[in-house]
Amino acid sequence: MAQTKLIILDRDGVINHDSDAFIKSPDEWIAIDGSMDAIAQLNQAGYKVVVATNQSGISRKLFDMETLNAIHAKMHDAAQLAGASIDAVFFCPHAADFNCDCRKPKPGMIKEIAQRYDIDLKGVPVVGDSLRDLQAGFIVGCAPHLVLTGKGEKTLAAGGLPPGAQVHLNLATFVEKFLMLEAEN
Ligand SMILES: O=P(O)(O)OC[C@@H](O)[C@H]1O[C@@H](OP(=O)(O)O)[C@@H](O)[C@@H](O)[C@@H]1O
Ligand SMILES: [Mg+2]
Ligand SMILES: [Zn+2]
């Protein structure tokens, strides 16, 4: 049986605009133009889309679980309005000094996704705007994709991307290229 076709997305700076002051409420969550339509296109091509996001704002007490759930309810509503579906959101609530296994660049969330969906991670695209997003996926075999929204321009300028990392203007252009390549193969 073929494995589930899956794409793993970072949240802040990929799906929605990011802020150095964190995204602390549903009002602060604003979709990046084209991101919801891009997810809908992936769905229509048979891909499930999941999110793997660092949310240290929880441990920093910038917002609580109820607020994070409300932010994700707004994200799911926005997806539904575009005919898109985000299958699941995996998040790390910890700050760096907690030394957990789930905070990117550690691969804990990505491994959990592989278990949940019973898939081999080899070549599964991970799309992010920070180096840690790409590293978390790359070390467990995923294909790293950087978008230049959010912190992406800074990430590109800083260098040190994992070997083979591809760079895209935004999620929409990643999806366009990815689905074109899939159609050719
Ligand atoms: O991009 P994802 O993983 O979806 O979420 C990132 C956010 O949790 C926040 O992550 C923080 O990093 P630190 O947690 O302070 O290292 C900062 O980069 C914030 O600007 C950012 O909003
Ligand atoms: Mg991000
Ligand atoms: Zn964690």
From TrEMBL:
<feature type="site" description="Stabilizes the phosphoryl group">
    <location>
        <position position="104"/>
    </location>
</feature>
<dbReference type="InterPro" id="IPR004446">
    <property type="entry name" value="Heptose_bisP_phosphatase"/>
</dbReference>
<feature type="binding site">
    <location>
        <position position="10"/>
    </location>
    <ligand>
        <name>Mg(2+)</name>
    </ligand>
</feature>
<comment type="subunit">
    <text>Monomer.</text>
</comment>
<dbReference type="InterPro" id="IPR006549">
    <property type="entry name" value="HAD-SF_hydro_IIIA"/>
</dbReference>
<dbReference type="Pfam" id="PF08645">
    <property type="entry name" value="PNK3P"/>
</dbReference>
<dbReference type="InterPro" id="IPR036412">
    <property type="entry name" value="HAD-like_sf"/>
</dbReference>
<keyword id="KW-0460">Magnesium</keyword>
<feature type="active site" description="Nucleophile">
    <location>
        <position position="10"/>
    </location>
</feature>
<keyword id="KW-0862">Zinc</keyword>
<feature type="binding site">
    <location>
        <position position="92"/>
    </location>
    <ligand>
        <name>Zn(2+)</name>
    </ligand>
</feature>
<feature type="binding site">
    <location>
        <position position="94"/>
    </location>
    <ligand>
        <name>Zn(2+)</name>
    </ligand>
</feature>
<feature type="site" description="Stabilizes the phosphoryl group">
    <location>
        <position position="53"/>
    </location>
</feature>
<protein>
    <recommendedName>
        <fullName>D,D-heptose 1,7-bisphosphate phosphatase</fullName>
        <ecNumber>3.1.3.-</ecNumber>
    </recommendedName>
</protein>
<feature type="binding site">
    <location>
        <position position="102"/>
    </location>
    <ligand>
        <name>Zn(2+)</name>
    </ligand>
</feature>
<dbReference type="GO" id="GO:0046872">
    <property type="term" value="F:metal ion binding"/>
</dbReference>
<feature type="binding site">
    <location>
        <position position="100"/>
    </location>
    <ligand>
        <name>Zn(2+)</name>
    </ligand>
</feature>
<dbReference type="InterPro" id="IPR013954">
    <property type="entry name" value="PNK3P"/>
</dbReference>
<dbReference type="InterPro" id="IPR023214">
    <property type="entry name" value="HAD_sf"/>
</dbReference>
<feature type="site" description="Contributes to substrate recognition">
    <location>
        <position position="103"/>
    </location>
</feature>
<feature type="active site" description="Proton donor">
    <location>
        <position position="12"/>
    </location>
</feature>
<comment type="similarity">
    <text>Belongs to the gmhB family.</text>
</comment>
<keyword id="KW-0963">Cytoplasm</keyword>
<dbReference type="InterPro" id="IPR006543">
    <property type="entry name" value="Histidinol-phos"/>
</dbReference>
<dbReference type="GO" id="GO:0034200">
    <property type="term" value="F:D-glycero-beta-D-manno-heptose 1,7-bisphosphate 7-phosphatase activity"/>
</dbReference>
<feature type="binding site">
    <location>
        <position position="12"/>
    </location>
    <ligand>
        <name>Mg(2+)</name>
    </ligand>
</feature>
<keyword id="KW-0479">Metal-binding</keyword>
<comment type="pathway">
    <text>Nucleotide-sugar biosynthesis; ADP-L-glycero-beta-D-manno-heptose biosynthesis; ADP-L-glycero-beta-D-manno-heptose from D-glycero-beta-D-manno-heptose 7-phosphate: step 2/4.</text>
</comment>
<feature type="binding site">
    <location>
        <position position="129"/>
    </location>
    <ligand>
        <name>Mg(2+)</name>
    </ligand>
</feature>
<keyword id="KW-0119">Carbohydrate metabolism</keyword>
<keyword id="KW-0378">Hydrolase</keyword>
<dbReference type="GO" id="GO:0005975">
    <property type="term" value="P:carbohydrate metabolic process"/>
</dbReference>
<dbReference type="GO" id="GO:0005737">
    <property type="term" value="C:cytoplasm"/>
</dbReference>
